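Section: Multi-chain targets

For targets with more than one molecule, the full set of components is provided together so that the structure can be written out for the assembly as a whole rather than chain by chain. Components appear in the order listed by the source. The example entry contains two components.
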Amino acid sequence: MGTFQIDFGENRKSKIVGIDLGTTNSLVAVMELTGPEIIEDSEGRKIVPSIVSLSSEGQLVAGETARELLLTNPERTVYSVKRLMGRGVSDVEDEMKLFPFRIADDSESVIKLKLGDRTFTPPEISAAVLRQLKDNAEAGLGAPVTEAVITVPAYFNDAQRQATKDAGRLAGLQVLRLVNEPTAASLAYGLDKRQDGIIAVYDFGGGTFDISILRLHEGIFEVLATNGDTHLGGDDIDNLLLRIALEDVQSEWKQDLSRDSEGVQRLRRAVIQAKEELSFVPEAKIELDYRDMRYRRAIDRQLFDRLIAPVVERTLEPCRACLIDAKLTPEQIDEVVMVGGSTRIPLVRTAVERLFKAKPHTELNPDEVVALGAAVQAGILAGDVEDKLLLDVTPLSLGIETMGGVVSKLIHRNSTIPASATESFTTAVDGQRNVLIHVLQGERELVKDCRSLARFDFRDIQPMAAGFARIEVRFLIDANGILNVTARDARTGKEQSVEVKPSYGLTEEQVEAMIRESFDKAEEDMRERQVREARVEADNVLTATEKAQKNEAWATLEPEEQAAIEAAKRDLQSVYRGNDHAAINGRIEALNQATMRLAENMMNTAVRGALKGTKIE
Amino acid sequence: MSNPNNFYEFFGFERKLGVDREALQKRFYELSRKWHPDRFSRNSPEEQMQALEATAILNDGYRTLKDPVKRAEYLLTEEGFPIGEQRSRDVPPELLEEVFELNMALEELKSGDESARPQLTAAKENFVSLRMNIDAELERLFAKYDAAEPQSETAKQALHDIRGVLNRRRYIENLIRDVDRALNAASDATAPAQDLL
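Its structure, encoded as tokens over all components, is:
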């Protein structure tokens, strides 16, 4: 039978989606002719909670499904995993006290999280969220989605960016660009309509804080400076309230709820609900009904403001530093844009207004604006948006370790990216074959105060007297803010081989192994599906055959024909329970062949019956 | 002699020490629109690499050329007048006495003697005005170099003088940084005590 193939034309390109991979929530958007649009899931929801759970069938599920499982199956569920991206075990000790992360003992440079009896790295967990977004986008657009722009906090370092890119690859997405969240938001706001001006983007999300100051000029968005804190967000306010509520519950109920993970999760939800209400009403209640116990606690905005004031104050310090780096005074800021769910808090708005002496923009939904901006950036990459261009900066200085544990800076923070620097290195010992370079990110002078990125081992240097070799190393930060290092032997001009050992991150080999594994898993899934489909088909054929045996046409068959059909039925039943879909399909085909004449005779009987009583002219 | 890595050539600007900032910015935006990797995301890997390399040079060049000091240092190196880091540690003779007193005051403040604070603040103001004088002198030397025949003795003499002035400037810049740090560190340390009052 012939099939129709709808021809979309040779050069119709698939859509590039824009993804906001948030600490708390994630969204996917796409550029339409009329502007950027959020893609909803099949039930009309825009937001996918960044929560991942290991289902009882052993599969990672994300979003709303996982959010429900967080209550009933907290040991197999994880949230706020963005806080762990590109970080080591020693970095997150503080967070461990507040987040129910269960870190596996065999974690090395990459954290491994325990979900049930299995372990996953943060990029693998994030990939599950991205896969959910990809599925939603494919269903919404009715076409495969393979390319994406993913947003990251502006203040993310190299390892955190690399981890995000790895997550994209693991989810089967080619990440065409990592774009900074505040800059994406500025694109969504369409502020370039005013042609020229200086804007500040204050982005206070679930787990991260960013401030970026940009100059707009005829569609060019030039970031002048950025600052932030990748561990400061609404989560911190939740934890603050949760800690107080836990103490409160303990004194009322005379029992320690903090050891009961389900209880903690329920109280956490109650606290978040109260926090969100307080953005709109002057008083809210923290309410918990759990295991026949009851807890009620009223909290008014005054108390709330007093509690969270230190958290809000922590966002202002990076703002002041950013102004200094941009060589601007608050009066020179023309407009302020508010991004992230935490900017709904009235105290946050007042603090920002006071600092920048300007009424902040809050017209767009602060939860959606980053994803919308990511879609605009996707449109720029696809060539659909031609008038806009984003020139972003690297948030942290890049340097190398020199004598005495001192960092020598090569690329300074707030340099427009792509940016590069070249350094020459030589050998210290006669016949030395390799040179090891330690690359760091950060503003401090000593190695111990900066963030180790990676060690580059330049190998197979031609042996010669000490100080004679000349290895020219090029450090290049690309448009994603990710470091690329190449080296050549300056004497021969030959490319120098280099082995990269990331300090906190997956090696290229590890990422590839994970992708292979997920392909194997996909193959396994596909085989299972084929077996299930073959069984459904076998059911249909067997039922039809049994029905036909009761038809009057059955009697018209020769005894050996009837025997052949019985044999073919038994053959099919014998492989039905097995896992070989090809065998099942083969026997279905054999049974179809055996029943061919039976089917013909049934058809003839039916036609004769239909013609009965019909006059033939 | 075309060298794509030469910032002046990349921008299509004459090799002068005086640069019109507005023209430079305009050219930077123009070239960004042409070369930014965003414009090549669906091109071949080779073309993408070329765009990345070109934009890196463009950005590095803009950063260098828009800052008069970085620009001068770059041109000096290009013209065979390398600027030595270590030279900035030699105290310019005319500052010997002041630097000696400054170091004394810095030590006093570090040991908790707040009476050194006004003296340091005054010293800082002095250095800032010295830096302004230096910048004016640089501007004069830039004009002298730009007016001279390239490679001429006058041009070389100007570059030689510029190098000397830049070294003095860097020295003063470091002094200002040290004083700033000392003043800030001291006020940070006293902050909690004020809170208790």
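Chain B is about 75% helix and 0% strand.
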